[in-house]
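User: Hey, my collaborator sent me this sequence without any context and asked if I could get a structure. I don't really work with proteins. Can you help?
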Amino acid sequence: MDVAALSILRELGERGSVTAVARATHRSPSAISQQLKTLQRQLGAELVRRVGRGVELTDAGRALAASSVRIDTAIAEAETTWRAFQGGLSGRVEVALFASAAELLVPGLLDRMAAYPDVELHLVDLDVGQEEFAPRTADHDLVVGHRSDEVTSAQSAGLVVVPLLREPLDVALPLDHRLAALPTVTVADVIGEPWVGVPEGYPLDRVLRTMSLQSDVRAEVVHRTVHLPLIENLVATGHGVALLPRTSSSQRAPGRFLLKPLSDMRAGRRIEALLRPERAARGVVRLALDALVAEAGAPR
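Assistant: No problem. I've predicted the 3D structure and written it out in structure-token form, which is a compact way to encode the shape of the chain:
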């Protein structure tokens, strides 16, 4: 079998169209189609079928695509072994992170990776809903994503998932808020306030929805943005309250806004590294992953 064609089969199953696979692999759609036709002719079986404007894999296609993951991983392991035998690891690693994780992790990550001058670290901004981080592993070596506590990790999607840290979520209040003197607040204390939130589907919004369900009161979100410093500014100037990650926001809170833990709900978000198995087998990717894990565990 053509190993490259098997990899294309896997990409097609994940991306859903020949055009998307061609774009991702820097080939023409006709070249992709020709490889798939050749593979089907060699095997004498239908591997792909058209569905609407896209395509999907048949049962046979899915079985071969799963085999492709193991083959690609074995090849990556062999390449890593050979590079180490030749005297060292070198190459490029692309790491995609959302903004507040980058703020926490990137300075220390760069310091740690400076010990490996032959490894080029390329950083990409990626701020999407929590369900969208796992699919982006198709395009980046390593994706740093986050999810609210109650959401299952992406391991069920066949990815390698490495926990980095858990950040408690606190309620941010203006300095002169009526609850300012309390050491903690309850969901009932704050759910009726105007909220400054993140887009729907993001981890902080999922927690706010859980608060609404727990109290049976719908939270009124008056502003939404992905930019945490803007949320902090809006809270500080009295435009609402917000859920904010404690570690990320505590350094900017003094003299501007208050962070109050919830006493009747365990609210938090989990920051994780997500990557495909064959990328995790690459030595240079493992170096970056180890550096991320070490930085996440550093005292703050």
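In plain terms: The radius of gyration is 23 Å. You can pass these tokens on to your collaborator as they are.
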